[in-house]
C-alpha cells in the first residue's frame, strides 16, 4: 500500500508517537485505568478549549455525532445553514430522522451570512439552528459566532459542525450549545473518534426530547461519565490512547500557537495560489484556516497532478463531487508545518512547470 | 498503567502483530487503497462465515449496530428475547427509539427457549424478533437457530446479538437476517468496530421502514459499498488495518478449528469449576462457548482474587451488576489458548489454596 503524506482535509498526518501509542495492549473498559484515561482526556479537552461545557468522546465518525445532536435536541423543528456537501448532509440527516428541517443555502464557495439566518428564523419556531463552521467540500468558514447570537436571540439552541476546524482554527466553544468535531482532521489523529462539546442549556433541552435513541444519547453518555468517568458502551480504547498522547502535544503547543501556525500555513497556500494565477474558490473574508480550495483557473489535470504527487510521497485532494477537476483542495491542518506546505508547493510547482502550465 | 492479560469477556487479548498493524500511517478513505482494504475485509468475512449475506463493518461498539438493526428493520413492533443485561439493553434501545417492544424474559442464568418465543409470537404481529445469542452478563447461550425458525414461520425477521460469540462459537449466519457482532471479543481485536451481517430479506424490508436515520442506515452503507467498496463516512482506518491482519490469521486457523479450540477451553474451565466445588451459573445445555460464569458457591472474595491476579498479570471479570461477588466470569475467547486457561486456573488455585478456600 502507498502511504503518502496527507495534505487532504482528513484523514491527516498522524505523528509517529501518536500512532505507536495505539499498539499498546488493550485495557478493560470497566477498570480504574479507564476511569483515569478517559477522565484525563475529558479534562484535557476542557483545558484546551477553555470550557466547562460537557465533553463527550464517542466511537464514530463526526457524522454520527451530527446525527446524535439532532436526535438529542430536536423534537420537531430545526433550521440548517449549509454551503456545501457536509452542510447539506446534516440537513438530510435531520430529514432521515423524521425532523421538520428547513434549509438556508449559500451557493458553492459562498458563506452562510448572519442576515440569511436572520431573515429565515422566526422567534420560537426552531428548536435548533445547525450550521457548518468549516465546510470541508468548499473551504468556506462560516461566521458562526454571529449566527449563534441570532439563534439564541430567537430562542433556538445552536450547534456547529467543526469537524474540519476544531483543534486548528480558534473557536470559542462556549458560544455554542453543541460543537461537533472528529479526530482525523485538525486533531491529527486516526479516524474513529468524534467529539461533542455540549452546553448546560443543551443538556437541559434533552430532557424534553423524545426518541433520542441510545448510542449517541447525551443523557446516557453523561450519566455514565458522572458515575465513574467511563462510557456506557465499549469505547475504542486504542484510539483513546492516541488521543491522550496527542492532547498532551496540543496542550504543550498551546491553542493560540496552534491557531497561528494554521493561519500561517493558510497564508502561504493562498499567496502561492494567487501568485501562480489560480483563483481561490471560497468567498473572500470567509476562507478556511484549515483547508484551501483552489479554483482550477489554469485548467490543469488535477488527477494527473495528484498521481504524480503520490509518486513523490504526497497527496492532495481533488474537488468534492461536482467540483472535481474544477477545484482542488490543499489541507493545512493538524501537525503539518509551514515547511511541509512549502515543500508540497515546491513539488507542485516543479510538476506544473514541467508540464508547461507556468 | 497496568496491562494484565485479559480473561474478561471483552476487550480480549490482541496479538502483537495485530496491535502493531495499527501503527501504520493512515491512508485516505477515498482512495483505491481503501477500496482494496475494505473490499478485501468484506470478502474475508464472507469467506470466514461461509456466507453471501451483506457484510458491513461500522465504526462503533456493538450496541450502535444493535440500535441500527432496530431502526433499519422495525417500523412499529419488535419482540425481544432476553436473559441478561445485554438482552435487556437491546429491548430498552428499541423503546428509546420509539418502537413498540415486547419482551420474553428468561431469568438470570436461564436461557430463552424456543417455546417461550412460540408462546408469545403472533403470526404477522412482529416485524422483528431480536434475541441474544450469547449473553455476556450470565454466560448463557440461547438456542437461536430454533428461535429463528419460529420467527420466520411467523413472518418476522430475526436478528441476533452475537457480540461475544461470533468468531469463537460456530454460528451459521445464513439462518439469520442480521447478525450483530463487534471487534473486541472473540475476534481478538481492539474495540471500535462493529459488524452487521445482513440478509437479502432484511435489505428488502429496509425499503419500507421510515426514519432509519443515517449513520447506521444499512441502505446508505450498502449503496456506498456497491459504488466502490468504501464507507459513506470516514471509517476507523487504523482499526481496519488490525481487522485485515486478524482476518488472515482467523482464516489460517479456520473457523472449525477455532470453534474446537473454544470448546476445549470451555470444558477446561467448566471441569475446573466443578472439581473445586463451584457451581456453574448458566443452565445446563445452554452454556456459552466463549465465557463461563462461575457461581461463587464457595463464598470467596472475587474482588480480592482479581486484585491478586492483576498483580500476577492477569484479569478476570467479577459478576455483572447485581451478580457481582455472587458470580465471576472467565472468558475463554479470541486468541487465548488452552495453555493460557490452564495457566490462569493454576494461579487461581494457588491464590485460593493460600487463603484456605480449598
In short:
With 358 residues, chain A is α/β, with parallel strands linked by helices.
Rg of chain A computed from alpha carbons, rounded to a whole number of angstroms = 20 Å
Under the CATH scheme, which architecture of the largest domain in chain A would be assigned?
3-Layer(aba) Sandwich
| Through-space gap between termini of chain A | 33 Å
**Strand composition percent of chain A:** 15-25%
* Averaged pLDDT of chain A: 97
What's the β-strand tally of chain A? 15
Largest sheet data of chain A:
7 strands, mixed
The 3D shape of chain A can be described as globular
Unreliable spans of chain A are none
Description:
2 copies of one chain form a homodimer. With 358 residues, the first copy, chain A, is α/β, with parallel strands linked by helices. In chain A, 41% of the residues lie in helices and 17% in strands. Chain A has 12 helices and 15 strands. Chain A has helices at residues 16-21, 32-48, 62-73, 85-96, 114-120, 144-153, 200-206, 218-228, 237-253, 255-276, 302-311, 338-354, and strands spanning 5-6, 54-59, 77-82, 100-105, 128-132, 134-135, 140-141, 157-161, 178-182, 193-198, 279-280, 291-295, 314-315, 317-318, 327-331. In chain A, α2 (32-48) runs parallel beside α9 (237-253) and α5 runs parallel beside α6. The longest helix of chain A has 22 residues, at 255-276. Chain A is globular, with a radius of gyration of 20 Å. The mean pLDDT of chain A is 97. Chains A and B meet through α2, α3, α4 and α9 of A and α2, α3, α4 and α9 of B.
